[in-house]
Amino acid sequence: MENEIAVAAALYEEEKKRLQMLIKECLEDLEGPNYLLANHHQTALYQVQQTLHILYNLDDALFDEKERALKSISFLEETLKTHKSSYTEQHLQNAKITLAKLQTTSKAIFANQEENILEKAIFNLVHKKVKKFKLVLNNSKQLYLQFISQGNTVKITLPNIKKHIKDNTLYESQITHFQKYGFEITIKNTLVRSFQNKGEETISHIKMLLVNIIFKIFYFKAFD
To answer: How far apart are CA 167 and CA 25, in angstroms?
Structure first.
């Protein structure tokens, strides 16, 4: 898994560089037809950067914290070039210590025990060794996804959406995103996404859907 993430990240980094170059070229063409394409390339760049953020977080659960520490170090180092002070120097040392600690405690999300349990549960569901299981997102607010195998169909459901909206556990914008990923709202107040069971292909689709739910619809670090 780690190698697959690294390969994907490298490819997206190349695409990021390509789009940045295209944007630069378009903006230089002030009176030409390419100037208007800059916005199109900027939208594509934003999507690539979002995907990279997901990939880096999958590879390293502490990626965001490390990025904040690196930005803080860079800012403080630049500040010291023009305004030297013991206060700023101390903050710089503290930031470097924080980064060093983060680098020694790095932990890949997909390397932990919970991920292995989830992968096994999805495998057993698709291969009909179990009929259903729950993936709890927030235990205190009873927010969970339920996975169900029925005949040749695999369903993922999120029940009680009206209650979650009322309690501000879910927002209308998130419901809209669920629908973009193929979920439908039933008369039973439940979001449902159905897959035809095609074995390993279905497992791959479910995993990708979960990545989108956890990283694009929710903020994954907010889960219990």
So the answer is: 48
Pairwise CA distance, residues 167 & 57, whole Å: 28
For residues 138 and 224, the model is more confident at: 138
Q: What's the pLDDT tens digit per position in 41-62?
A: 888 888 888 888 888 877 777 8
| Tokens matching residue 125 | 């569901």
d(CA 116, CA 148): 19
Sign of CA dihedral 180, 189, 207, 62: positive
* Cross-strand partners of 133: 147
d(CA 209, CA 203): 10
Instruction: Show the tokens assigned to 171.
Output: 């927002």
Tens of pLDDT, residue by residue over 65-92, are 899 999 999 999 999 999 889 999 999 9
Phi, psi of 218 (to 5 degrees): -110, 170
Cα 11 → chain centroid = 17
Residues pairing with 159 in the sheet? none
